């Protein structure tokens, strides 16, 4: 299992790096577009399409697994903090199972929708430039699938090993 967790961790790190690079590229792309539009009066074609269909999806969905792996998701523990640790752990596992079901469903349906978009050759036209958008449709199921795998690993650790004392510490 150690090799599997290390491999999953590397994939998560890689996708998070890709998301970070996409963020930098998005800022650069927008800055160049603004300069081109207001100084040279020649906007870059496709900026809105590329930003909204590629960069934003990369930045929003690929780092989800990284945040989950590090227990960086938002949680409110007003009631559960007073419960015994065993109960807290049980509720934590139940929450992870629920999230696993949701993200698995999102990944599955996202994959189906991406396949449909690929079949029809989904694209957008911006400033007389045709830009394919169907490849970006695979980014959502990739991000959701990766967080689902992360949740499977966390559930496995929680059920088979002694998890960290604090629920805030990373599981792997």
TrEMBL record:
Record membrane topology: Multi-pass membrane protein
Return one Gene Ontology term, BP aspect.
Answer: C4-dicarboxylate transport
Q: Where the protein is mainly located, per its record? A: membrane
Please state where this protein is localized. Cell inner membrane
Instruction: Please describe what this protein does.
Output: Part of the tripartite ATP-independent periplasmic (TRAP) transport system.
Quaternary structure and partners? The complex comprises the extracytoplasmic solute receptor protein and the two transmembrane proteins.
Name the protein family. Belongs to the TRAP transporter small permease family.
Write down what this protein is called.
TRAP transporter small permease protein
Q: Which organism is it from?
A: Seohaeicola zhoushanensis
């Amino acid at each position: 299992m150690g090799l599997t967790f290390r491999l999953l961790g590397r994939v998560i790190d890689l996708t998070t790096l890709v998301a970070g690079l996409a963020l930098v590229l998005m800022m650069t792309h927008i800055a160049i577009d603004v300069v081109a539009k207001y100084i040279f009066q020649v906007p870059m074609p496709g900026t809105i399409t590329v930003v909204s269909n590629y960069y934003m999806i990369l930045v929003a969905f690929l780092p989800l697994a990284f945040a989950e792996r590090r227990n960086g998701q938002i949680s409110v523990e007003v009631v559960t903090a007073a419960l015994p640790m065993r109960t807290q752990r049980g509720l934590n596992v139940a929450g992870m199972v629920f999230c696993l079901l949701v993200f698995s469903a999102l990944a599955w349906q996202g994959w189906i929708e991406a396949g449909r978009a690929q079949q029809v050759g989904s694209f957008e036209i911006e400033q007389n430039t045709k830009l394919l958008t169907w490849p970006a449709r695979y980014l959502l199921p990739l991000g959701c699938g990766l967080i689902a795998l992360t949740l499977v690993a966390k559930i496995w650790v929680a059920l088979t090993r002694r998890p960290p004392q604090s629920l805030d510490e990373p599981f792997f």
